[in-house]
Amino acid sequence: MENSAVAPIVANGYYFSFVPLVGGLLIAVLAEVWRRGIQLRDDDGLA
Hints:
This protein is mostly helical. It has a domain at about 20-45. Helix content is about 55%, strand content about 0%. The protein is rod-shaped. The chain starts with 18 loop residues before the first helix and ends with a helix.
């Protein structure tokens, strides 16, 4: 790819982003907190 005509256009560098990992972890934590809140509410008979 270094010698081709599209080399300046194509991004061939590798990088790792933690944004999807952090986003997924945040969604999982929020879902667990939500689930436990619903469970506690059901246990108290408030639903």
